[in-house]
Amino acid sequence: MLNQAPLNQAPLNQAPRHRAPAPMGEHFELTASIGGRSQRVVVTEVAASLRELDVDGVALIQDYPADAQPPWCAGWVLVPWPNRVAGGTWSYDGGAQQLDITEPENGNALHGLLTRTPYGVGALTADSVTLDAGLSPQPGYPFELATSVRYQLMEDGLIVTHRLENTGHRSAPVALGAHPFLRLGSVPTEELTLYINADTHIEVDERLNPSGITTDVAGTRNDFRAGQVVGTVDLDDAWGDVRREDDGSSLHYLEAPDGSQVQLFMDASFGYVQAFTTTEFATHGGMVTAIAVEPMTAPADAFNSGQGLRWLEPGEVWEASWGIRYQATRKSLADAEEA
Predict the structure, then answer these.
(1) CA distance 292 to 197
(2) Cα–Cα distance for residue pair 21/17, rounded to 1 Å
């Protein structure tokens, strides 16, 4: 079941944010102590990106130098589409639409329209921050949206809630996602086991756009339901038909050899998950292997396929949530209780 944000909040932190060098603008740092555990999160002004997350001192997000661009789109909010629009072209009301090409090597429009946008602070408490950004009509996307993302610390991690409102005068196509790179403390990413609880794999062409073929994962290298060690795989892949709980939520995770986990949970709005690996993620200590496990409400090229795409009517509001949890081993939890 999807975790809910805690109802009781700590007294307001009088200094919850600090100025950081360009290019990501101001950083917002929140710390809390909820349920006898400690939590910390850092998000950025530009792209409302998730930069750091710790629970009980265990890092759950792969961070990067404060004065650097996020490697491989790390932590970005992806609105009004995640992943790609093939060729940046799609059709609306019988007319051709052309988005800017932001992935020139493949000739696609990548990851939405707010990845370079500074967000404003909509609300701030001791353990949450809400960042707001608007979308005006522009080439390839002639619609108006008000968007926000709320980062809320909770006992075992973080819940992220997106809000999209159509502030224009005609229905607007929307999808959303995020690009968190998960980690599990000091355990090398190569030693973690990836679990994707999904029954189908979305096949892509040479430009990484869906080919129109979806395959059953059973008996294939794309079956991560029983887990595969990250060090043995090379991924830039998406899955559908996620296995859902009774409330529609789903769970995907990385597990360390000791049984501890960093979990990505998604509410019923998120029917797709992407995993991406790289051996060239730039950190303070040099290049490391890293893995992004990405919640998506629609797969790549949804503006053309319509798959997972949502149309917001004028004045309509849509909210969707996902989050990250730390599941320690029973032994470590017992040790913490004794301490």
Answers:
(1) 15
(2) 13
